Amino acid sequence: MVVRFAPSPTGPLHIGGVRTALYNYLLARKHGGRFILRIEDTDQTRFVPGAEEYIIEALTWCGIEFDEGPHIGGPHAPYRQSERKALYAQYAHLLVERGWAYYAFDTESELEEMRQRFEAAGMVAPQYNAVTRPYMKNSLTLPPEEVQERLRTQPYVVRFLVPRGREVRFYDEIRGWVSVHTKEMDDKVLLKSDGMPTYHLANVVDDHLMRVTHVIRGEEWLPSTPLHVLLYEAFGWERPKFAHLPLLLRPDGGGKLSKRDGDQLGFPVFPLQWRDPQTGETSEGYRERGFLPEGVVNYLALLGWHPAEEREIFTIDELIEAFSLERVSKAGARFDFEKARWVNQQHLRALPLRRLAELIRPLWESRRLPPVPENSLMALIELARERATLLPEIIEAVRFYYEPPTFPLPDQQGAKLNLALVEELPEWIGELVELEPWTAEDVERFIRRKAEARGLPIGKVLPTLRLALTGDVSGPSLYKIMEVLGRGETITRLERFLAAYGVQRQV
Ligand code: GLU
């Protein structure tokens, strides 16, 4: 099996493109095949600098690796279509020789004139086809000498000659048989007047030369496939298998998921942050939002594919094992950001603590938070990760660590203090100074024993201590908080609290 991902570098890779790449990758790995990255940059007017690098970085972040591509080379190099330009013209001329294509000399204004003329005659959206072709300036209508003359002196394009009266049939691995009559098709340009191929020609020629066995791409390319099928026939090449993946829909199901929907609904539609080189506008990515690549990949796999078993959480290796095209559905897949977060949460919980610390530390540092030793960082992560769905939530959940409470507390919080405990606290502190060892378990035993001995309900003691140490009544386990703060910081905070409430510790 040989599959390829063939993006056009016209901007950042949409999350739907990541899914296409992922499905190709999973199949290649499952069947021990090869996975090619091919950059389809023949439309120079839409070329965006940085887009190719972005695509490679984004897929690398996701753990999607290629066997061949512009960044790693391979037996079919070059992998950028702009660098293969000379090749395509030969194939276009070959089709002309074989009677499957022709030269056309019509100018923009002549094409426009044709459209207007046929529209006036009642035709809807006139195209260059069997009906209009005889009225145009091309190598089928002009005398051979004039054609030769024009080829020497004028810009021209090569158009595909769609055969009359045929039903083009092909099998799509996801949708089954697809059939289109050639009267529905137009004579698409194969080679442009600048000598560059169009998508159709370059795509088919390269899939053939690169020995691609399975063309797996988004549903938006389905309408192009009948032409591709005819091109394979015209060249006399064996055609690959086709599979068109379902569209990614907006959460409400009302249409294709676009960048604008993401902006409006508050979730990213790109894997990584992207800065538009023209407008300077920045779009957020899943990575910057705090997703793990494992979470993004797992969620994307589920957008259009249903595992055989009742299970939703997979590592990429488990996906390779479980994935098959038979279980990809035809129906569009609705994007569900909450589900994406949930899937990410499951991966956050499963990640080894050390690896999580490696991911959190740069975030911690980029926020210029006070330095944190490695063992405290791991302890903090352990405290917070259960409830976090995204990486930054871990940092926010341990705010108590880097942002000591300020006193006096706001009235609403102050009202929750247990004054009897406040009175006793100096004595408690005196004993805490001596407490050995200082672990969550020891601290808990101490607090429970003291509360019981003094007849203070634990349900009042804990919120008071929590307010004194964190300024908040909710959060991770108080005993664990005391353990990570350490004895010194715990006592400093309790003393500052007491000072604010007018109670002095007696030494
Ligand atoms: N260049 C096309 C794209 O941008 C490739 C479509 C295909 O895979 O054939 O998606």
Q: If you had to describe this structure to a student in words, what would you say it looks like?
A:
With 507 residues, the protein is mostly helical. The protein has helices at 15-30, 51-62, 85-97, 108-120, 144-153, 199-209, 225-235, 259-265, 286-289, 293-302, 316-322, 337-350, 353-366, 374-384, 391-397, 399-402, 411-414, 419-432, 440-454, 458-470, 478-500; strands spanning 2-5, 34-37, 101-104, 157-160, 167-172, 176-181, 189-191, 214-218, 241-245, 248-249, 274-275, 282-283, 333-334. The protein folds into four domains: 1-70 and 246-350, HUPs (Rossmann fold); 84-198, Glutamyl-tRNA Synthetase, domain 3; 353-397, Helicase, Ruva Protein, domain 3, CATH 1.10.8; 404-507, Arc Repressor Mutant, subunit A. The strands form six sheets. The chain has a three-stranded antiparallel sheet with strand order 3-4-7. Strands 1-2 form a two-stranded parallel sheet. Strands 5-6 form a two-stranded antiparallel ribbon. α14 crosses α21 and α20 (458-470) crosses α21 (478-500). The radius of gyration is 33 Å and the shape is elongated. The relative contact order is 0.08. The chain binds glutamic acid. Residues 6-8, 40, 199, 203, 217, 221 line the site of glutamic acid.
